[in-house]
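Incident log, support desk, overnight shift.

02:14 A customer reports that sequence design results differ from what the structure should imply. Their input is reproduced verbatim below. On-call engineer (initials T.W.) acknowledged and began investigating.
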């Protein structure tokens, strides 16, 4: 029987518990891979009852118990939250448990007891009160992997985007933009597209920084002096990278058919087109780690937590992509995308 996927609780006051319950309902009959979640089983059972979701919840002692159990109940590896959980109300007292769930899930995948890591959304400002020192999940996972360089990729049907700078204020992102970093991110993205997405010769479209990619230097020289030389080095390394492209014309349907992933210079340049195309189904994938990690491409949605209206499509897509990537790495045929 296949190894299960490890799903973290995320912020307990958010929608993570609700979408976990709904994801099990979507998968229980014929899952590409079973999953277990690291959470409080009593909390999830109460939540299922309150929302009218017919999800049996059963505690497990170890990940290897999840596959045999999955068809009849949601397997939950118990996690204790020190403070009572109220939907929509953050409590910093629960932050250490959120961090512990991530650390445990990483340990399971690194020990070969889980096939991949899928993370529910976290509320970073709450974690900062508990000593969390990272801009986000991606950077924290890089540290847990031994200080490796993680790269964020966002995936939706018809579009993959990779931001070169991620969780930085725009002013800081512009100051940090560096040709060596563009090249490093491009190499990691191309390698992942080949190994995990079965694209023999990945095509990378590289976005310019300035309007119209600088118009030959009339609106800034970053595209000429920083981005173009990095593209040249990627091409010299055998990677099919091209650009810099005008950012406002590279995301329409016809343009997207020309490439397999878009390398973008800052966070919103990448995420705005992807979330416009598929807000509910986008997936965050971390590249450059020794294990697979995916996540829903949305936040904790505190404003709708506990109301039963949260949509689970992005989590289901994240579980699906993690399953397909793990099967591909194991040498087996990857299942058709759900």
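02:41 Re-run completed on a clean worker. Output:
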């Amino acid at each position: 029987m296949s190894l299960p996927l490890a799903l973290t609780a995320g912020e307990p006051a958010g929608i993570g518990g609700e979408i976990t319950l709904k994801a099990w309902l979507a998968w229980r009959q014929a899952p590409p891979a079973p999953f277990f979640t690291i959470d409080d089983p009593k909390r999830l059972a109460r939540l299922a009852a309150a929302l009218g979701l017919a999800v049996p919840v059963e505690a497990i002692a170890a990940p290897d118990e999840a596959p045999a159990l999955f068809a009849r109940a949601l397997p939950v590896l118990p996690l204790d939250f020190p403070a009572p959980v109220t939907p929509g109300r953050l409590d910093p007292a629960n932050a250490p448990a959120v961090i512990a769930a991530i650390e445990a899930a990483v340990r399971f995948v690194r020990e070969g007891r889980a096939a991949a890591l899928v993370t529910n959304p976290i509320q970073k400002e709450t974690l900062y009160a508990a000593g969390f020192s990272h801009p986000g999940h991606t950077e924290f996972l890089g540290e847990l992997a031994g200080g490796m360089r993680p790269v964020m990729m966002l995936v939706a049907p018809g579009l993959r985007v990779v931001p070169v700078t991620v969780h930085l204020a725009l002013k800081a992102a512009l100051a940090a933009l560096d040709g060596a970093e563009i090249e490093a991110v491009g190499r990691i993205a191309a390698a992942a597209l080949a190994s995990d997405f079965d694209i023999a010769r990945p095509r990378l479209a590289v976005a310019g920084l300035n309007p119209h990619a600088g118009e030959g230097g009339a609106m800034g020289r970053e595209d000429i002096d920083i981005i173009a030389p990095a593209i040249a080095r990627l091409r010299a390394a055998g990677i099919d990278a091209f650009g810099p492209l005008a950012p406002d014309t590279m995301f329409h349907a016809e343009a997207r058919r020309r490439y397999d992933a878009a390398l973008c210079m800052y966070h919103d340049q990448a995420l705005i087109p992807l979330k416009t195309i598929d807000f509910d189904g986008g997936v965050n994938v971390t590249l450059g780690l020794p294990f697979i990690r995916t996540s829903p491409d949305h936040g904790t949605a505190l404003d709708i937590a506990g109301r039963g209206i949260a949509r689970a499509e992005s989590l289901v897509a994240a579980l699906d992509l993690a399953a397909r990537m793990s099967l591909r790495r194991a040498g087996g045929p990857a299942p058709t995308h759900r």
